[in-house]
Amino acid sequence: MTTGDPFRVDGAVALVTGAATGIGAAIARALANAGADVACHGNSRPADATCDAIRKVGKKAISLQADLADKKSAAALVEATLKEFGQVDVLVNNAGLIRRAPAVDYSDADWQLLLDVNLSSVFRLCQLAGRVMLEQKRGKIVNVASLLSFQGGVFVPAYAASKGGVAQLTKALANEWASKGVNVNAIAPGYIRTTNTEALQKDETRNRQILERIPAGRWGDAEDIAGAAVYLSSKASDYVNGHVLVVDGGWMSR
Fold it and tell me: What's the Cα-to-Cα distance from 28 to each of 76, 150, 237, 241, rounded to whole Å?
């Protein structure tokens, strides 16, 4: 997977979900810049622009589209990646949804949708890609958790529950697979400027309150997460297992 530089991923094939925009697109581009070929998943929109950017740096890319709420989508994504590239060395489970409503009004439909996309699809993809990686005796899985893996948030009960589950799933899989050459870790982004946080960014009061707590004094950008993803996908992190790496500008330290 790597040459002399432990932070390179030359020769690796990565599957990144939610790679059409935002954090997923930034991670996919960063992995390509570090040497990987990338299968880029998009849900409602294709990841064609991300693939174009990857090809411009001389790496291979395919655009895959699937609804992660569908139980069959995980198998389709892994199979398509294997068909195109013959291997899966890195899996980044980034795709996720958020729905905001008071807990007493939260709909069953939104609760189920978020658990399906944010948690169940993560398990299925880890399970399927994990089988390949265990057979290869090498692999890196990077799940995207959240600050709400640690905190409860407000008006986001399903999101908080799903991201808490992602953190615990990460640790559970690491316990099983660390001795078999497969590293499973997670990144917990702080407040990042993406479509998922648009409502908070536009709320003057909440935006001010958020900025007042972040020691770095700014919202994060998608690129702020990409370096952590490359690290956890590379040989440099070979002795890192079951860790949830917080990238939040210092939010959790306050």
Answer: 19, 26, 18, 22
| pLDDT digits 0-9 by tens, 198-220 | 888 999 999 999 999 999 999 99
With cut-offs at 50, 70 and 90, classify the pLDDT of residue 3. Answer: low
**Which residue type does 164 have?**
G
Residues 163, 145 contacting (CB under 8 angstroms) = yes
What was the pLDDT predicted at 202?
A: 93
Which of these, 186, 164, 165, lies nearest to 174 by C-alpha position? 186
**Does domain 13-253 sit in CATH 3.40.50.720?**
yes
Alpha helices (H) along 137-222: 157-177, 198-202, 204-213
233 in Cβ contact with 159 (< 8 Å): no
pTM above 0.90, yes or no: yes
CA neighbor of 144 nearest in space, from 179, 183, 190: 190
159 carries an active-site annotation: yes
Instruction: Please return the burial class of 174, using the count of CB atoms within 10 Å of its CB with bins 0-12, 13-18 and 19+.
Output: buried
- Among 69, 9, 6, smallest CA distance to 34 is for 9
One DSSP character per residue, 33-60 reads: HTT-EEEEEESSS--HHHHHHHHHTT--
Residue from 159, 191, 231, 239 carrying the catalytic annotation: 159
> How much is the pLDDT for 4?
84
